[in-house]
């Protein structure tokens, strides 16, 4: 099921057939570094079992989408997780695994769609995320979607920029953000 469509991407339900590419992306050292994680080393069969569990229980754990191009090519995923219903907030994340789509606006298009979907269809009042301080491409995409830096954090050997987007600010600026999405590419 397609949940939202933008200029470059559309958000759809995650599917079991996404697992093979998700596994490739999560075992890729460059993608893992950008996610401040170690590449997965578990066998695909183990990964598939965990993947199936998350798919079957996704509504209770997170809001997640597959990202595909308008032509239907699966290029990544995005999600809201660490959902705190009492505080009305969740953490946002995105992965564009197909590297040929980096730096061309696909990530900000998809993230903007997810933000709109979440703020229009849930009671969340705040989305937050963290990104490596040297990942300026991601920071530009997040800012393009309305996220603002609010702090920094060090964890282990990583330094992160903390960013947030309040629903009230998104509501005030959503028309401007939509215009910006249509006229710019990251």
From TrEMBL:
Superkingdom, taxonomy of origin: Bacteria
N-acetyltransferase domain: residues covered: 9-168
Keyword Transferase appears in the UniProt entry: yes
InterPro entries tied to this protein: Acyl_CoA_acyltransferase, GNAT_dom
UniProt-recorded Gene Ontology molecular function terms: acyltransferase activity, transferring groups other than amino-acyl groups
Alphabetically ordered keywords of this record: Transferase
Signal peptide: none
Name this polypeptide is given: Acetyltransferase, GNAT family
Lineage: Bacteria, Bacillati, Chloroflexota, Dehalococcoidia, Dehalococcoidales
């Amino acid at each position: 099921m397609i949940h939202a469509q933008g200029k470059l991407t559309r958000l759809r339900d995650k599917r079991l057939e996404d697992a093979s590419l998700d596994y490739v992306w999560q075992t890729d050292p460059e993608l893992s570094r950008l996610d401040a994680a170690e590449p997965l080393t578990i066998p695909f069969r183990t990964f598939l079992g965990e993947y199936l569990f998350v798919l079957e229980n996704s509504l209770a754990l997170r809001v997640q989408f597959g990202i595909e191009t308008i032509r239907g090519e699966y290029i990544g995923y995005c999600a809201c997780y660490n959902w705190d219903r009492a505080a009305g907030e969740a953490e946002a994340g995105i992965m564009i695994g197909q590297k040929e789509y980096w730096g061309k606006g696909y990530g900000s298009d998809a993230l903007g769609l997810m933000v709109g979907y979440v703020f229009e269809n849930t009671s969340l009042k705040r989305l937050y995320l963290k990104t490596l301080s040297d990942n300026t491409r991601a920071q530009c995409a997040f800012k393009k979607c309305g996220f603002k830096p609010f702090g920094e954090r060090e964890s282990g050997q990583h330094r992160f920029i903390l960013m947030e987007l309040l629903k009230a600010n998104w509501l005030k600026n959503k028309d401007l953000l939509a215009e910006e999405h249509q006229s710019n590419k990251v």
